[in-house]
Amino acid sequence: MTAKIVRVLLVFTTILVLGFYLPDLYRNRFEKRANKSLLYYSEVTRDFVFAEERYDSLRQEVRMFYRDRAGNPLSETEYMRRLPFNNSRKLKMLGQMPDSVMGQPLTQEVLRSVRRMMLIGDKGFEYPLAPLFESQPGHPGVDLPEDLFRIGKRGIEFFHTTDLSIDTAKSRRFNEALTAAGFRAPARDIYGIPSTIKSRDDGYFIVDAAGRLFHLLMVHGQPRVRAIDNRFEIRQIKCHVPGDIYCHIFTPENELYVLRTDYSLCKLPIGPTNGRFMLTSNCYFRSYKNLGSDSSVMYVLDADFGRVDSCALPVASYRTSPQADVEARLFPFRVMTTPGYTHLIPVPNPVAKFWVTNLCCVVLLAGLRLWRRVRIYTPFQLIDLALTAVFGLYGLIAVLLFPNRF
Amino acid sequence: MIIQHLFYKEWLKTRWTWLAAVVLGVAAVLYLFLRVENGMERFGAKIYMLRVLYDNPPLIYYRMLLYVPVLIALCVGVTQYLPEVSNRRIRLTLHLPASNTRLILGMALYGVVMITLANLILFGLFVARNVALFPAEITRPVLQSVAPWFVAAYPAYNFVAMVALEPHRWRQLIYALVGWFVLSPLVVCGEAVGSYARMIVPLAVMAVASFPLLLFSSYRFSKGL
Predict the structure, then answer these.
(1) Quick one: which of A171, A207, A293, B52 could link to A189 by a disulfide (CB 3.0–4.6 Å)?
(2) A7-62 tens-digit pLDDT
(3) For the residues of B36-57, what is the DSSP string, one character each?
(4) What is the DSSP letter of A248?
(5) What is the pLDDT of residues A148-179, one digit of tens each?
(6) A101–chain B nearest CA distance, Å
(7) Rounded-to-integer distance, Cα A46 and Cα A310, Å
(8) B197 to chain A nearest CA, in Å?
(9) Looking at chain A from residue 97 to 136, which residues have their Cβ under 8 Å from any Cβ of chain B?
(10) First-to-final CA distance of chain B
């Protein structure tokens, strides 16, 4: 009896293992590379342009096709001319680089104003330990300080890394400045760029125990603290290298705010999003491309964060492919790991198309048992059939791997 | 009383291998921190700490520890069960005046106790050295990343015992494959400090759930299937 119960346990373990590996194996074998669909905003025409990868049956190869918003086809050169910031090198080689855009000469400085970055609203690993750089060191760049800081229940503490001893005088000085600004320890989160590879230091943005946002800087060795009037919950902050804004702030509802260098907060006029953006900015426009699994939506804002335009582009994804449909019919669930955190998530198949496969598996198992003249009405044989009915292919394989014979 | 004798028998079989494995494990931990101290000396402690936290990919100074607890579990499991099954000597044990289930679980319990002792020694040493060199803000996430590797030793041992007691070769292969595929996605390294903390729960569940697995093999062994 004990051995039979243990066998069920073993079968169940095998089902989980198969739920991890079989869908993965299937995808690796059958998933096809989706054709690329790209969406850009042209500073020249002030409209969207599209680039799509299609199979050219005449040449028997995958080619890029370009079009404008109205669907008119564009040549590659025309496409590049409409996006001078993205294609400056090629346009210069072709001698087709425009002299000016929107009445402003396209100087090297203007071309260098392009910034591209990912903005992700999900919480990552934030470490409550960082170096506080001198913000005005008297030379370009930053110097790594001798100590690191943390903000625990006792407030801010600077400690030497060699012997982990606390610099009490400096800690007291900074604590007094933080308390005077209304900061309540401990810090909930500390955001900044703890790297020396930047032209200037903009300090750290600290969310205190009450959820209020503070900006902490060190200027000539002295603290400079500024309370920021945030009237919303903060989930994530993405700080930027020195420019006209300090950071982007995500709320738990994936609303996006911008903190300007004059400490004014601006809520971005963009629709409900999933909190995953590709941001491209230059001195004319800022485009926030919200990356969804089935579509990309680009919101174009002007330099003052006013909405200029928006456009959605459907994206070919595995989820809508015939292979995914077959996968949904084969597997009742899959166990996956999340990158970075790597914890296991059983993902049930919500479509429930797999019942046909499960039924076939049950019939097959019952047939095999009857063919071998095994009585299928015993409790443990019925458990096998039930496991196969619920877990389909996984159940059938696991049950056959560990036969119910004692 | 018979369980005490059983424990003594298991101790006689495994003592030298266990001691050697623990000594090597301790040496691995000490060597690991020797390298940390050397790294701190060469690059400076603050740069070393910042590399641990913010480098991409991060500096994972504790990577050497990844398979050590699992290897200790394998050593204990192999030395405990291989001599028993190689000449089918375990039949003598199974004829002792106690139920087979009790005897087999007693043997497994001995293995679990020895692995726990080894884990305590290595984990304690790792914590002590880590606390001496790093602040709590680094020690805490590092321990969260390392803890699943120690928990993984238990299901590894249980699968070794199950494979060893299985009388049929091809079934041994299947059990070993199941064990490998169960553990390989869980015993991992390479992501940021603090990753994998949530592996502890599935691994702990697996450790508890896999404990009685060897009863299945032992039943088949005693029945001569």
Answers:
(1) A207
(2) 888 888 888 888 888 988 998 888 877 778 889 999 889 999 999 888 777 777 78
(3) HHHHHHHH-HHHHHHHHHH-SS
(4) E
(5) 999 999 999 999 988 889 999 999 999 999 99
(6) 38
(7) 11
(8) 8
(9) 125, 127-129, 131
(10) 31
**B223 and B166 in contact (C-beta within 8 Å)?**
no
Let me know the angle formed at the C-alpha of A129 by A126 and A135, rounded to the nearest 5 degrees. Answer: 105
What is the pLDDT, as a whole number, of residue A343? Answer: 56
Which has the higher per-residue pLDDT, B88 or A86?
A86
CB B32 within 8 A of CB B64: yes
Q: Per-domain residue ranges for chain A?
A: 2-31+324-401, 37-112, 118-289
Cα separation of A308 and A401, whole Å?
62
By Cβ distance, the residue of B54, B101, B225 closest to A194 is B54
A401 interaction partners in chain B (CB closer than 8 Å) = 174
Q: Which two tokens stand for residue A2?
A: 């004990």
Tokens 């459907």 found at: A314
pTM: 0.81
CB proximity list for B19: less than 8 A, separation 6 or greater? none
Which chain B residues are closer than 8 Å to A153 by Cβ?
Answer: none
As a whole number of angstroms, the distance between CA B185 and CA B183 comes to: 6
Task: List all residues of chain A from 339 to 358 with a beta carbon under 8 Å from chain B.
Answer: 339-344
CB atoms within 10 A of CB B110: 21
Decide if A313 touches B, using CB distance below 8 A: no
Of B182, B220, B223, which is closest to A13 when you measure between CB atoms?
Answer: B182
